[in-house]
Amino acid sequence: MDEIDQAQSNNEDFQAFALKLNQRKREPGNYTGVWCLDCDEVIPEKRRQAVPGCRRCIDCQETFEMEAA
Predict the structure, then answer these.
(1) Which among 30, 14, 31 has a CA at the least distance from the CA of 22?
(2) How far is Cα 18 from Cα 4, in angstroms, rounded to an integer?
(3) Which of 3, 12, 36, 50 is the 20 to 30 A CA-CA neighbour of 56?
(4) pLDDT digits over 16-26, tens only?
(5) Taking the model in full, what pTM does it have?
(6) Phi, psi of 64 (to 5 degrees)
(7) Within a domain: residue 69?
(8) Distances, alpha carbon 52 to alpha carbons 5, 43, 61, in Å
């Protein structure tokens, strides 16, 4: 991979990070839907029952918590 390809890859990574960060700032505080805010997949029924008001599926929540730490 040459320098231009590396720069492009870095730029794409940064843009993806910035978009995700911006989305998190716009998250509704009272979200109660069945769709994950990050991946748009259905949040399993058992998770919604165990964690009322959850906004993410288990995988996305784990990622969110790891990035926040």
Answers:
(1) 14
(2) 21
(3) 12
(4) 887 876 666 56
(5) 0.53
(6) -60, -45
(7) yes
(8) 44, 11, 14
Dig out the tokens for 39 from the structure: 């991946």
Each residue's pLDDT tens digit, 26-51: 656 556 678 898 898 999 999 988 98
Range of the domain at 50: 26-69
Say which residue the tokens 């890859």 belong to: 9
Any domain includes 67: yes
What is the Cα–Cα distance from 48 to 68, expressed in whole angstroms? 22
Largest CA distance in the chain: 50
Cα 66–Cα 67–Cα 69 angle in degrees, nearest 5: 65
Question: Into how many domains does the chain fold?
Answer: 1
Name the nearest CA neighbour of 50 among 58, 42, 62: 58
